[in-house]
Amino acid sequence: MRILVISDTWTPQINGVVRTYQNLRSCAERKNINIEMLSFDQFSSVPCPTYPELQLTITTPSQIEKRLGNIKPQYVHIATEGPLGAVSKIALNRLRIPYTTSYHSRFPEYVAKRFFVGRQLTYRWQRHFHNSSLGTMVRSATIRSELTHRRFNNLMPWVGGVDASLFQPRDDRIFGAHTPVFLYVGRVAIEKNLRSFLNLKLPGLKVVVGDGPARAALQRQHPDTLFCGAKAGEELARCYSSADVFVFPSLTDTYGLTMLEAMAAGLPVAAFPVAGPLDIVIPGLSGCLDWDLGKACLAALDLNRNAIRPTILGLTWENCLRGFLSNIETANQLHA
User: Fold this and answer.
1) What was the pLDDT predicted at 117?
2) pTM of the full predicted structure?
3) Each residue of 9-57: pLDDT tens digit?
């Protein structure tokens, strides 16, 4: 089986989309399934205004058609709705090659925060983008319900995964040995609503692991917060196990893989009751959800950490790959 995944974001960028398809490829290789990436690094690109770490692809439908002719994939999946995804959609439609898509980000909310473009206009375009595919994979039931209300068609459930062998409870503690540690992991960007966490008056230490365009300003404004930069692998796993509460302040995420990593490490989650946390966290068991984020953080300190990890052990990358393949095959069979 050869699957082509088209994505506007890829390594060395660090985000949920990149980590998802990295893990899917690793699992697929062990099953002799080839997932090939078509991403921004294979084309000319320019930095995204207000977010230079992201690159916007410069290409044409004709160039994409040539790539498709060389690769000859059995299935095609568009992971993102950026410039590369949009141009690829035109090329695939011209060649009458069917494809699936996925809904990883609340793109209209991100655009509204950065460029002050009305969300309804962006949702209209996004609906047109996804409804022209065979089906759209959606990570959470809450988002699926919301998109159904917005008249998105052919939505397919697709759960996330976590490497529970890497992210697990550990005895070491790299910061805050004698004080509560409240940890955030993820992009440091305006759409992540980090100020709602950093402005809280909490006992102990606040730690931010990650990088992004808002880091410099937030680091100046919050000198008492420890900003560690981006981490991966063992370094990241040790950050989780060294904290007491994982704080997820975002109001715009569709899922939140970092919450799964934190919970695998036995870390309770404090978050707002919105899409993502509502689909992952079991209130009172694996975390606390409250519109008062400070209240959620303090309540999470009292949870039994031994009960948290078992709640997510079924969410493996193998199961995530299985759902991905099943969605692709089912959508294409219905189209045939």
Assistant:
1) 66
2) 0.93
3) 999 888 899 999 999 999 999 999 999 999 999 999 998 887 788 888 9
Q: How would you class 118 by CB atoms within 10 Å of its CB: exposed for 0-12, middle for 13-18, buried for 19 or more?
A: exposed
CA dist 216 and 57 (Å) reads 26
- Identify the residue whose tokens are 């993102």: 80
Q: What is the 3-state secondary structure (H, E, C) of the chain?
A: CEEEEEECCCCCCCCHHHHHHHHHHHHHHCCCCEEEEEEHHHCEEEEECCEEEEEEEECCHHHHHHHHHHHCCCEEEECCCCHHHHHHHHHHHHHCCCCEEEECECHHHHHHHHHCCCHHHHHHHHHHHHHCCCCEEECCHHHHHHHHHCCCCCEEECCCCCCCCCCCCCCCCCCCCCCCEEEEECCCCHHHCCHHHHCCCCCCEEEEEECCCCHHHHHHHCCCCEEEECCCHHHHHHHHHCCCEEEECCCCECCCHHHHHHHHCCCCEEECCCCCHHHHCCECCCEEECCCHHHHHHHHCCCCHHHCHHHHCCCCHHHHHHHHHHHHHHHHHHHC
For 233-253, write each residue's pLDDT tens digit: 999 999 999 999 999 999 989
